[in-house]
């Protein structure tokens, strides 16, 4: 419903509505839909019938397959992509600890931390560009180019021996490869599922935890047998095979979405010109007419204006930024923390594996439940569990091996659940044709925290508090994440008991 109609109509509460109905809200993407019986003109007469997003009655809503071979093939492709993308991100601690201990021994710990912080920054900041490419050109081209960059970067990393070589091969090359793969992995699933989106996204995102289990185990097994160089090469060959499969299976429905949007616009009697977005292909324009000016126009609009006007989206972006800040420090330095406590190289890598293994059910169960209780409600719960596990287990008892492993399990479950819910929360408050844009924008802002989180974490370990102070710092940032998830939920539905 447009702003003009909102101002013309007065919203009147239905006094006869029972309490169960008044306490129920639809999903966030339907928050701005008003029922006909709830709206009256100022003079008491009924307004003309309208539908969600100003769609006219002549145009049916966009339909989702909700299953089938094609849809689940896309889920499998996204799962494989997540194994080589987020699974790789979740495993960089296995590389960081070995590089710091055996390869870059003449460099400071702070200098080494920049290798991995630059990698994280590029991997997330580039989502704003790859999200734009996905919305316009689809998933497959991004998968192909991203696969080439990741595999090539790993081969370069295998042969690196100096700090600048690791920055070029690992930070830049692998970072750009990951940033191209991420938006298609999380956005193309939303093109095929609506009611079952939480379940489908949980299956796809679980690839991140599967990869986080496999890659540290590969490193743990091969470091002592064939050395660092050939261990990284083995990873590169495995990535090559997996991403080849993903490139064949991945697909999207951007053309159908655009056609539906154009059909809706043609049926509208007013507001046609004002609802045209940068992504839309207007009559007479084709994808081949793309120019550099389109990129500039897109970047200007996406960063400063459209999405950031929604306060609930702003709260979500801040929550995401705090979440990424905390978990990247925790996942990257968990092996180093274990070494500092005297647990040994094998145990340090095993703890990272356990943390990622716990994330497999952690990514599936919360996303499945979120279809029933609401995406934002569940995100608040999982984020709170992250904070509690840090302050109740890791900070006071982390020096005990058994407690440390218990923390790895609980933290892995809660982190995975939160990560799996973020794409669902983003898609719930954005339009289907803007999934890639909304997700890419959120991670663009989060990436600036990722750039400095590892150097800050390493700097804290250099203080008198050491790694113990770093764990408390992670917990504090995680608590801020929980706070902003709650604020986003309150902004959308207030304090009502609602599915949101």
Automatic annotation (TrEMBL):
CDD domains: MFS_MCT_SLC16
Signal peptide residues on this chain, from the entry's feature table: none
Record membrane topology: Multi-pass membrane protein
GO terms for cellular component: membrane
Recorded superkingdom: Eukaryota
Membrane-spanning ranges: 71-92, 112-134, 141-158, 164-186, 198-218, 230-250, 315-336, 342-361, 373-395, 401-426, 438-460, 466-490
Gene3D superfamilies assigned to the protein according to its UniProt record, in alphabetical order: MFS general substrate transporter like domains
Disordered, as annotated region: 38-62
Keyword presence, Transmembrane helix: yes
Entry's localization field: Membrane
GO biological process, one term: riboflavin transport
Matches recorded under Pfam families: MFS_1
Assigned protein family: Belongs to the major facilitator superfamily. Monocarboxylate porter (TC 2.A.1.13) family.
Protein name: DEKNAAC103670
Main location: membrane
Domain Major facilitator superfamily (MFS) profile: 71-493
Organism: Brettanomyces naardenensis
Gene Ontology MF term list: transmembrane transporter activity
Keywords: Membrane, Transmembrane, Transmembrane helix
Annotated InterPro entries: MFS (IPR011701), MFS_dom (IPR020846), MFS_trans_sf (IPR036259), Proton-linked_MCT (IPR050327)
């Amino acid at each position: 419903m447009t702003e003009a109609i909102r101002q013309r109509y007065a919203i009147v509460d239905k006094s006869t509505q029972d309490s169960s109905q008044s306490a129920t809200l639809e999903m966030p993407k339907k928050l701005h839909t008003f029922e006909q019986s709830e709206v009256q003109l100022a003079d008491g007469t009924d307004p003309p019938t309208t539908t969600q997003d100003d769609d006219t009655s002549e145009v049916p809503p966009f339909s989702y397959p909700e299953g089938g071979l094609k849809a689940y093939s896309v889920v499998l492709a996204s799962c494989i992509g997540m194994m080589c993308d987020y699974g790789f991100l979740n495993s960089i601690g296995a590389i960081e600890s070995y590089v710091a201990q055996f390869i870059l021994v003449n460099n400071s710990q702070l200098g080494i931390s920049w290798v991995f912080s630059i990698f994280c920054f590029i991997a997330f900041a580039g989502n704003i560009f790859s999200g734009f490419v996905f919305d316009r050109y689809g998933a497959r081209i991004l998968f192909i180019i991203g696969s080439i960059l990741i595999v090539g970067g790993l081969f370069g990393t295998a042969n690196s021996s100096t700090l600048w070589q690791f920055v070029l091969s690992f930070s830049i090359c692998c970072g750009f490869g990951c940033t191209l793969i991420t938006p298609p992995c999380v956005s193309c699933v939303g093109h095929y599922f609506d009611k079952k989106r939480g379940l489908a996204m949980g299956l796809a995102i679980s690839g991140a935890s599967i990869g986080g289990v496999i890659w540290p185990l590969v490193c743990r097994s091969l470091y002592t047998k064939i050395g660092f160089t050939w261990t990284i090469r083995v990873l590169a060959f495995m990535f090559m095979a997996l991403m080849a499969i993903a490139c064949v299976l991945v697909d999207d429905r951007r053309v159908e979405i655009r056609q539906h949007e154009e059909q809706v616009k043609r049926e509208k009697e007013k507001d046609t010109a004002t609802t045209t977005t940068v992504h839309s292909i207007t009559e007479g324009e084709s994808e081949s007419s793309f120019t550099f000016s389109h990129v500039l126009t897109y970047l200007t609009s996406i960063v400063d204006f459209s999405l950031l006007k929604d306060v609930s989206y702003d709260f979500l972006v801040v929550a995401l930024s705090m979440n990424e800040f905390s978990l990247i420090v925790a996942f990257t330095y968990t092996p180093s923390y274990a070494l500092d406590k005297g647990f040994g190289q094998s145990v340090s890598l095993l703890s990272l594996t356990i943390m990622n293994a716990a994330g497999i059910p952690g990514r599936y169960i919360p996303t499945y439940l979120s279809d029933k209780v609401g995406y934002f409600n569940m995100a608040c719960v999982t984020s709170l569990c992250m904070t509690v596990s840090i302050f109740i287990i890791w900070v006071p008892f982390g020096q005990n091996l058994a407690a440390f492993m218990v923390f790895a399990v609980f933290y892995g479950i809660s982190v995975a659940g939160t990560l799996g819910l973020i794409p669902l929360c983003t898609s719930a408050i954005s339009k289907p044709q803007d999934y890639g844009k909304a997700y890419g924008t959120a991670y663009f802002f989060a990436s600036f925290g990722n750039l400095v989180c590892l150097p800050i974490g390493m700097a804290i370990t250099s203080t008198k508090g050491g790694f113990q102070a770093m764990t408390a710092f992670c917990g504090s940032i995680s608590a801020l994440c929980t706070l902003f998830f709650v604020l986003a939920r309150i902004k959308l539905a207030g304090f009502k008991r609602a599915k949101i």
